[in-house]
Amino acid sequence: MSVRTSGSTVAAEGGPSGGSGRGPSPTADPAAYGAGLDPDDLPDGLVVADERGRVVCFNAAAARITDIAPEDALGRPLEHALPLQDIEGRRWWRLTDPYGGLAIRRGQPERNLLLGGREVLVSARYVRSRPTGPVQRLVIALRGTEARRRTELSHAELIATVAHELRSPLTSVKGFTATLLQKWERFTDDQKRLMLETVDADANRVTRLIAELLDISRIDSGRLEVRRQRVDMIAAVRRHVQAQTTAGQRPDRFLIRMREPLPDLWADPDKVDQVLGNLLENAVRHGEGTVTIEVGPASEATSAEGTSVTVSDEGPGIPEESMSRVFTRFWRGSKRGGTGLGLYIVKGIVEAHGGTITVGRAPAGGAQFRFSLPVAAPAFLA
Question: Please, are residues 28 and 9 in contact by the beta-carbon 8 Å criterion?
């Protein structure tokens, strides 16, 4: 058997056997690397050892990940060419013994191993001529740990953000409740009411943050459930505008435009409220001037039948270079507070409904968010 890699062919005996250029060697075994497929075309590291445990394939990605030159690995025993260790410093190939261990084993699942001080993700497949026969070929896949580190960094950033956001309301709740318990008789009824209202508002803030964390968990795992019911989008928009004016915003700051008739919309009403509330709060907090909400048939903007909602403001807008990051975690349009998770959740909710959401520049120069939800079917017919 021979396998060409990095412009050379290595025979089963371990020595190079000619071969040049990028085309497959006429003596190469197509089954070893796939018909017409060059090992160097693979995105992950590929190392193949023959029945005697000598390396016969070491592609370019493996060389990049391990910092080992192919010519230093080809033809050598696997244990010397790829001296992997576990986190306790034990030699991995002696520990697993792929050639002399249990004959029913088919391979090794991916795990984090050490190679010369660097971390490498390694998985292996044992190729046998028959189910319990000897190992004819050992196929090892290598991946770098950069993607895992980015995930771990994202999780650490999420924990830090949550801890920061929880600290302020919990400190307030603890302070007011402790004060009321110790000095209840010294306060007037109005003072007590003010402190209790503050505690209630901070408790609601904590509840919203916990709900955001649960939503993120469901979105990331693909388990966000949508319970479809009949939704009156225009009534929902008016309800959220009323909530903003009740909270102190001027009524003339909001302009609702409707294009009727609208098709029947079946969506999750709670999650639609979450999307509308987040987009309106975002426009009020980060935008300026009039906030315009347009509701109309989605078929005017897309080929799918449904409902489209556009929320725009007259503020400075979002820089062009930031628009591709708007729906990512922790993106903040300004330093006016917030966790940076709201738009990430909004996108997850809209896409869970089978809809789309986009961001652009409004005619008045501010930010413009448009989401469209398909008509779909009620939950009891899904």
Answer: yes
Q: Would you state the structure tokens that stand for residue 144, as one six-digit string?
A: 């770098």
Predicted local confidence at residue 231, as pLDDT: 92
Q: What is the rounded CA–CA span in Å between residue 203 and residue 169?
A: 7
Run of H or E including 220: helix 189-221
Parallel/antiparallel/unpaired status of strands 254-258 and 291-297 = parallel
pLDDT at 22: 37
Q: Which residues of the chain have pLDDT under 70?
A: 1-36, 299-304, 330, 332-339, 379-382
Q: Which two structure tokens, joined as six digits, stand for 319?
A: 């820089």
| Helix H or strand E encompassing 207 | helix 189-221
Which residue's entry shows tokens 């001037």? 289
Q: Report how far residue 232's alpha carbon sits from residue 255's, in angstroms, rounded to the nearest whole number.
A: 18
> Strand ranges (DSSP E) for the chain?
2-5, 8-11, 45-49, 55-58, 107-115, 118-128, 135-143, 229-230, 254-258, 266-267, 291-297, 306-312, 356-361, 367-374
**Residue 190 to residue 58: CA distance in whole angstroms:** 77
Half-sphere exposure of 228 (CA within 13 A, CB side): 18
Q: Give the pLDDT of residue 241.
A: 94
Residue 23 CA to residue 336 CA, distance in Å, equals 58
Q: Please report the pLDDT score of residue 376 as a whole number.
A: 76
| pLDDT for position 369 | 95
| pLDDT at res. 19 | 39
Question: Any idea which residue has 């409904």 for tokens?
Answer: 353
Residue 253 tokens read as: 């700051």
Contacts of 188 (CB under 8 A, 6+ apart): none
3-state secondary structure of 233: helix
Question: 170 near 206, Cβ under 8 Å?
Answer: yes
Give the number of other Cβ atoms within 10 Å of residue 28's Cβ.
20
Could you tell me which residues come within 8 angstroms of residue 62 by beta carbon, excluding any fewer than 6 positions away? 45, 46, 47, 68, 70, 73, 142
Read off the pTM. 0.59
